Amino acid sequence: MNKVPLTEKGAQQLREELQELKTVVRPKVVTAIAEARAHGDLKENAEYHAAREEQGFVEGRIRDLEHQLAHAQIIDVSKLQKDGRVVFGVTVDLVNIETDEEASYQIVGDLEANIKENKISINSPIARALIGKREGDEIQVQAPSGIILYEIAAIGYQ
Questions:
Q1: Residues of the chain with CATH 1.10.287.180
Q2: Which CATH code for domain 78-156?
Q3: Residue 54 near residue 31, CB atoms below 8 Å
Q4: pLDDT of the residue at 1
Q5: Where does residue 135 fall: left (phi above 0), alpha (psi -120 to 50 degrees), or beta otherwise?
Q6: How is domain 4-75 classified at the CATH fold level?
Q7: Which of 68, 107, 123, 130 could form a disulfide with 86 if both were Cys (CB 3.0 to 4.6 A apart)?
């Protein structure tokens, strides 16, 4: 199985979610099942069936998180060699050459990607175009509206 890149911060978030599911959510679901079971006939007990369904979702998510963490290659961004190149985990400030619009993205693994937080997947077209480039370099990104040209304004290793 291939290792999936994950920043230290992303791995910590997954660990926290896993801990929450195991120590808080799972016991609540077990209690809900026990309470619903106490109501009697299980065939027509909607509370029981809902609690069992929730238990299935929780257990599935726990398995997913454990699998993701077991197959993660955790990369501490602060320990990366700061040689001025764009690599996994860095934050890149870009300037659209045509519009002078600025954007900032952190390159993260697929599990952490969230455009609302300006985190883009290492497998995204823009990240693939950025990897290995240096500050001041220009890149071309194929977008639905056509090719967009960006200049790398800054690279941050935080």
A1: 4-75
A2: 3.10.50.30
A3: no
A4: 57
A5: beta
A6: Helix Hairpins (1.10.287)
A7: 130
Between strands 102-108 and 91-96, the pairing is antiparallel
- Tracing tokens 């992303």 back to the chain, one arrives at 10
Here the tokens at position 155 are 């690279």
The rounded distance, in Å, linking the Cα atoms of 118 and 100 is: 18
Dig out the tokens for 79 from the structure.
């320990």
Calculate the alpha carbon distances from 65 to 69, 75, 84, 113, 153 in Å: 6, 17, 33, 16, 36
pLDDT per residue as tens digits for the range 61-104 = 999 999 999 999 998 888 888 888 999 999 999 999 999 999 99
**What Rg do the C-alpha atoms of the chain give, in angstroms?**
22
Partnered with residue 140 across adjacent β-strands are 149
